[in-house]
Fold this protein.
Amino acid sequence: MTAAHTPAISLPPLANDRFLRACLRLPTDCTPVWLMRQAGRYLPEYRATRDQAGSFMGLATNPELACEVTLQPLRRYDLDAAILFSDILTVPDAMGLGLSFAAGEGPKFAKVVRDEAAVAELAVPDMDKLRYVFDAVGTIRKALADENGVGKVPLIGFSGSPWTLACYMVEGGGSDDYRLVKTLMYQRPDLMHRILAVNADAVALYLNTQIEAGAQAAMIFDSWGGVLADGAFQQFSLAYTKRVLSQLKKEHNGYRIPHIVFTKGGGIWIDEIADSGCDVVGLDWTMNLGKARAQVGDRVALQGNLDPNVLFAQPEQVQAEVIKTLDSFGKPSATSGHIFNLGHGISQFTPPDNVKVLVDTVHAHSRQLRG
């Protein structure tokens, strides 16, 4: 019997715990669904709240407003999990790199990490600098609970992976070609390993502090792992994701905390990711779910993996593609798990009504599959 099925570790009191059950490969009445970036710019109420906050960071650093936008999609849709509203770059910001978001542009850092002096200054940040994140977690958990303390759905905490954070820290923002970070990686692997080691220990502490504040699952977004060559991925991304996982709490207050790893473009390494120590492997839309399930067996649950651009099709086409994705995974067994999600974050231009079609179709068709 695996650790995931140890009777001594139970699930928290929730009105709907099918997401956690699927993460741990326990039977569910239907396939749970949540969406990456589900609290976001595709919702008019989100845009109104962001305007109220004055900026993205103004929103992310205000626990009450972060709670509000976390809950907004749950009011519209029958989602099976909430995910903390925050940003993956809060950790390097707390390291003193000076994060900002200009209107219409991506994130920028005032300081970059490209030489020995900058790398030498890096250290695991004081978690008090990220208190706003943990306060948001606590505020969301309270808002999700009824008068008896039973949560509506579980709350997912998250962080960027050590490699993905390093990409932004070296490049100074987003990148099309990753030239600067890969130059450092190939020319000075010693410096890159130092950055990644600090990042891994910072991410582990950050996620553990989220768990202590009330997060009931932890997800690592390795958004840029797929830009690496085979060999380099294992050395510079996966090794440090494993370093994070090895330090993460598997339980808190007697309740099991599932760990999810999502590597965009990582389908070719699914076996190695499945053996990393996580409970769930997230997949982008390039990987066939049925083949993925056959490869990993019952080692891990799978999360994914509808192409986000499907949501721009007509409602009946959205429905058909959702059914195709569920059929690809097939009927879950007693020891397999599937969490329906997109293969990457939802686009800001997505029609909100199509999201309802997606969510309702997942629940209805997966019930039929279980028959």
Summary: The longest helix spans residues 189-213. The radius of gyration is 20 Å. Residues 3-370 form a domain with the TIM Barrel fold (CATH 3.20.20.210).
